[in-house]
Specification:
Layout (H helix, E strand, L loop, with lengths): L1 E7 L4 E8 L4 E8 L5 H5 L7 E5 L3 E2 L18 E3 L2 E2 L12 H8 L2 E4 L3 H11 L2 E6 L14 H5 L5 E3 L5 E6 L4 H9 L3 E6 L4 H7 L3 E4 L13 H10 L2 E4 L1 H9 L4 E17 L4 E13 L9 E7 L5 E6 L4 E4 L14 H20 L1
Parallel strand pairs: 3-4, 4-6, 5-7, 6-8, 11-12, 11-13, 13-14, 14-19
Antiparallel strand pairs: 1-2, 1-9, 2-8, 3-9, 10-12, 15-16, 15-17, 17-18, 18-19
Bound molecules: glutamine.
The site of glutamine (GLN) has 11 residues, from strand 16.
Length: 357
């Protein structure tokens, strides 16, 4: 057992035992309130550069299975947990949580008073933290990393299927978004985040899905005109970062939340029905309500806890965006109909397109 420390930039130090790769690591300390789903969470590319604190007190109890990774290589900076379970019990378990971290080169710290850490992050706002064998007086400087570039595919990938053809713009997509599209019968072309409109046009899809992804959406400013053009030409669905990027491309603004929404229990109100849906979320930024041109966008979903914007619908183009994760994984699938409706819509619009041709 190797003693380790998480030092926050605000000075607080948390002690525990190092697990996984056991190397020094700097990241933004965030917390996730999900009760299950640690495998999907640590492999979600949107966490690139972040140290995730799990609020749920015991992690590793059902092991790691062969199906639930959301990406090939985890991009997160570290994990902080309460109790680590080294004796997983599940018929599909093939690995221990700590071995998964080691294999992925990710450092973790276990045995931490995570309730106190979460309370600290909630009062301080999101802070940087450093995982190390020793306490740190001062944190090393942050390297400015463009995380989307790091996690997005370098090559275009095509998945054959019988239904409508969707381009998945990869800002760091979760595998379950691709799986959800394939399950709906869609053929999918995954393209690098920087693919311009002209290239999308050459692919000639029936619709475009703008994926989730890490970091500040403003880092993608250079691509806003292309994103706008793509969404004006193809029925579009934006998920999480994809939602923020579409809003920004049409002139709205984003801001950083105090400590983000991360977990599988975030209530959002669907304004068309008045119903509250429980959603899976993982974001630190949000679209600023007052910056949205209400002649152009209708607000479709609002967060019940803090009234922040959770969904938008363009008034003239078939564009819909959601801040939460309708594909779930992990979390409730109350809103999976958003993906189904997108596919139904592009299938019918596709038919009209073909009829015109
Ligand atoms: N899951 C996501 O796509 C996250 C979006 C963005 N990086 C944020 O933190 O707000």
């Amino acid at each position: 057992m190797e003693q380790g420390y998480l030092t926050l930039e605000t000075g607080e130090v948390f002690e525990g035992v190092l697990i996984g790769a056991k190397k020094d690591s700097l990241g933004e300390v965030v917390f996730n309130t999900s009760m299950t789903g640690y495998q999907e969470i640590i492999t979600d590319p949107s966490y690139a550069g972040q140290i995730i604190t799990f609020c749920y007190p015991i992690i590793g109890n059902y092991g790691i299975n062969a199906m639930d990774d959301e990406s090939i290589s985890p991009a997160l900076a570290g994990v902080v947990i309460g109790d680590l379970c080294e004796t997983p019990s599940h018929y599909q378990s093939i690995q221990k949580f700590s071995d998964k971290l080691a294999q992925a080169g990710v450092t973790g710290i276990a045995g931490v008073d995570t309730r106190l850490l979460v309370k600290t992050v909630r009062s301080r706002g999101t802070v940087r933290g450093y995982l190390s064998h020793t306490k740190k007086e001062e944190l090393p400087p942050v390297k400015n990393t463009f995380w989307v570039e790091k996690v997005s595919t370098k090559k275009t990938k095509y998945f054959k299927n019988k239904g409508p053809h969707v381009v998945l713009m990869d800002f760091g997509y979760k595998k379950s978004i691709l799986t959800a599209l394939l399950d709906e019968g869609c053929a999918v072309t995954v393209v690098p985040y920087s693919t311009p409109f002209e290239k999308i046009k050459a692919i000639d899809p029936d619709g475009v899905l703008f994926s989730n992804g890490p970091g500040d959406p403003m880092e993608l400013k250079k691509w806003f005109p292309e994103i706008k053009k793509i969404s004006q030409h193809y029925p579009s669905l934006g998920i999480c970062l994809g939602h923020q990027l579409i809003a920004l491309a049409y002139g709205a603004q984003t801001e950083k939340l105090a400590y983000g929404h991360r977990g599988g229990n975030h209530p959002v109100k669907e304004l068309s029905t008045g119903k509250v849906k429980i959603t899976s979320q993982n974001h630190g930024y949000v679209v600023v309500d007052s910056s949205i041109d209400k002649n152009v966008f209708e607000i479709t979903y609002l967060n019940v806890n803090d009234k922040s914007i959770e969904g938008l619908k363009h008034k003239h183009y078939p564009i819909q965006t959601v801040q939460f994760h309708p594909e779930a994984h992990p979390g409730p699938n109350d809103t999976v109909h958003i993906i189904t409706e997108f596919v139904t819509q592009i299938a019918s619009l596709g038919e009209t397109r073909y009829a015109i041709k």
